[in-house]
Amino acid sequence: MKKVLLVISIVLSAIVNVNAQETKYGITGGFHNVTISASAGGFTVSDGAAGFFLGFFADFNVSEKLNIQPEIHFASAYQEGESLNEIIIPVMLKYFVTEKLNLQAGPQFDFVTEESDGLNKFGVGLGFGLGYDLSDKVFVASRYSLGLSNRFQDTSMGVTSKFDTFQLGLGYRF
C-alpha cells in the first residue's frame, strides 16, 4: 500500500512540475463497466458489472501533439443488488493524431472502498483509450484498462483475480 501511494505521489508531482504551456481543468463522467476474472490451473471465469463514474481531471499541454491528463474518479458498478465502489486514478498520456482526435495510454491505479475479506484493495492497470474534442470545452472519451495486479491476498491456492475496466464518458473543460 505504501509503495502504491509513493508511486502515485511521484507521478502526480512530476506532472504538476511539467513546464506546461497551457493547463486546463474539468469534470468527466459516464458509463463504467468492471470485469472481474479469476484464473487457476489454466481455466478462467469472469463476471461483469455496470454502473457509472464521475471525476475531475487536469490536462497539461506538454507539446503541440502531447498532453498528460491525470484524473480521479469515483466509480460504482452494480449487479444483482451487489455493488463495487472504487476510487480510480488514471494518468493518461494523450497523443493528438489530429487537432481533435487523440490516442491515450498510461497507468491506472484503483482502490476498492468497501471492506472485503481476502481482497487486495489496491490495484494497478494499463489503460488505452481514444478521445475526441467536440469543441474547445466538450469532449468524449472511451477507455479500457487491463488489470495487472492480482486482487487475491492468498496466493497459496494458485488462484489469481484481476479487474479490467471499460469507460465511456463525456467531459467538460473549464
TrEMBL record:
<dbReference type="Pfam" id="PF13505">
    <property type="entry name" value="OMP_b-brl"/>
</dbReference>
<dbReference type="InterPro" id="IPR011250">
    <property type="entry name" value="OMP/PagP_B-barrel"/>
</dbReference>
<feature type="domain" description="Outer membrane protein beta-barrel">
    <location>
        <begin position="11"/>
        <end position="174"/>
    </location>
</feature>
<feature type="signal peptide">
    <location>
        <begin position="1"/>
        <end position="20"/>
    </location>
</feature>
<dbReference type="InterPro" id="IPR000758">
    <property type="entry name" value="Enterovir_OMP"/>
</dbReference>
<protein>
    <recommendedName>
        <fullName>Outer membrane protein beta-barrel domain-containing protein</fullName>
    </recommendedName>
</protein>
<dbReference type="InterPro" id="IPR027385">
    <property type="entry name" value="Beta-barrel_OMP"/>
</dbReference>
<keyword id="KW-0732">Signal</keyword>
<dbReference type="GO" id="GO:0044384">
    <property type="term" value="C:host outer membrane"/>
</dbReference>
